[in-house]
Amino acid sequence: MARIQGAASYKEKQHHLLIGLMSGTSLDGVDAALVSIETDKHETIQKVRLEQFYYLPYSDALRQQVMLLCSPETARVDQLTVTHYGLAEWYAYAVQQLLRQAGVAADQVDAICMHGQTVWHVAGNTQFPGPEGETSVRASLQIGELSTVMERTGIPVVGNFRARDLAAGGEGAPLVPYADLILFRDEQKGRLLQNIGGIANVTVIPAAAADEHIFAFDTGPGNMVIDELVKEGTAGRLRFDEGGKIAASGRVSTELLEIYLADAYYQLQPPKSTGREVYGKAFVDRFRAEGHKKGLSFEDMVATATALTAKTIAQAFERFVFPLVPIDQLIVSGGGAHNETMLGMLKAELPKHIVVMTSAQFGIPDDAKEAIAFAILGHETLMGRPSNVPSVTGASRPVILGNICW
User: Fold this and answer.
1) pLDDT, position 136
2) H or E segment to which residue 50 belongs
3) How many CB atoms lie within 10 A of CB 145?
4) What letter does residue 261 receive in the DSSP assignment?
5) Which residues hold ATP (predicted)?
6) How big is the CA angle at 71 (ends 65 and 75), to the nearest 5 degrees?
């Protein structure tokens, strides 16, 4: 079987076929994208095309197990270790199903580019006992063993993308903006790329932008709070608010909303990132308890959580984007792109001249964009090129991301 033995062999080609794997903070499942990337003789990306997409939902048992690992109160080292390897079996299965659907053999694929499942993200400096006294540590843990995926599929795997940026003094996130620039840069239009997954994050791309002109950050909760409220409120019958129908049937509590708009995170200047350790189950429990005190119905709480996401996104634009960059279009992706109530709330908060679109209107399915992005990041790793953006992550310099399991 022909197989790449190193980056030098990969760089000799101008057409590359990769698989991007993404499992986000929503803990809903695995997005797998088969992506072709064409480069010119100068090794510059000329075309990125999605060939096939496959979604593998997590089982309830797996979702619950991973959820426990995202909280210091419930995480156990034995379960963390087992899940690290067990999740890799899910990733490998997703790859196999994707290839079956596409009618593509494993030996035609250059590499799998795998984000892994984030269970803890500490972007700021944390004090730790070092060899010469206290030292500062930045840390983020994505689980899913690369070697298992390689062994099950026979395809080289690139993963652990965030670690190198953290080592270089960055937040380790967001990483997708590098790919956003390749996919969505426009000579005439200033664009905002807003992903609404479990956490919401935005990439700011000025018209005719170069790498050093873009910036990005996590705006706050995306679907995470809404999903948890829906799961609890329906006794697990529903996992998310499809189309925003539950929110549309409720009333937004201005009083509850104002309490949670006061969260200190929203005032922090970018670069910044956040995750389930801030907006996970403990946050939702407090939100729900406050809602009950105020006599809110289940529908009212979902409506208010939806408004929280829309409002914090819009406020982030007002504080950190609009004073710096003229914007013409907002392009939404992720699960939130399907939530019509959320999109309606978001449009109502924005200046009238900004056109709100979804990535699907650009030929990139809303749920596939981040998986495609990690295929691009893996490609750059194999080309030996940096793909973090220091203006986005706060890293001291551009660095080549990820580890490779050949």
Assistant:
1) 86
2) strand 45-57
3) 21
4) H
5) 24-31
6) 55
Q: Is 391 annotated as a binding residue?
A: no
Does 30 carry a binding-site annotation?
A: yes
Q: How many helices (H) and strands (E) does the chain have?
A: 15, 12
Q: What DSSP line would sit under 362-405, residue for residue?
A: GTS-TTTHHHHHHHHHHHHHHTT-----HHHH--SS-----EEE
Tell me whether residue 26 is annotated as binding. Answer: yes
Using one digit for the tens of pLDDT, what is the confidence trace for 125-164?
788 999 999 988 889 999 999 999 999 999 999 999 999 9
Domain residue extents for the chain: 7-174+368-405, 177-362
Helices (H), 135-211: 146-153, 162-167, 177-184
Retrieve residue 20's tokens.
């991007």
The closest alpha carbon to 174, from 361, 290, 316, belongs to: 316
Domain 177-362 has CATH 2.60.40.420: no
Burial of 52 (0-12, 13-18, 19+ CB in 10 A): middle
Nearest to 312 by CA among 282, 342, 351: 342
User: Which residue carries 């995202």 as its tokens?
Assistant: 70
318-377: per-residue pLDDT in tens? 999 999 999 999 999 999 999 999 999 999 999 999 999 999 999 899 889 999 999 999
Tokens 């969260």 found at: 263
Which are the contacts of 63, defined by CB distance < 8 A and separation ≥ 6?
A: 27, 28
Q: Is 21 annotated as a binding residue?
A: no
The whole model's pTM is what? 0.88
- Cα 251 from Cα 243, distance rounded (Å): 16
Q: Report pLDDT for 211.
A: 85
Q: Can you name the residues that pair with 183 across neighbouring β-strands?
A: none
CATH class as words, domain 7-174+368-405 = alpha beta
The β-bridge partners of 355 are 329
Distances (CA, A) of 84 to 59, 79, 147, 400: 16, 8, 11, 24
Residues facing 405 on adjacent strands: 157
User: Is 396 in contact with 168 (CB distance < 8 Å)?
Assistant: yes
Q: Which of 158, 124, 123, 165 is nearest to 144 (CA)?
A: 158
Q: According to the annotation, is 28 in a ligand binding site?
A: yes
Q: Which two tokens stand for residue 250?
A: 């409720």
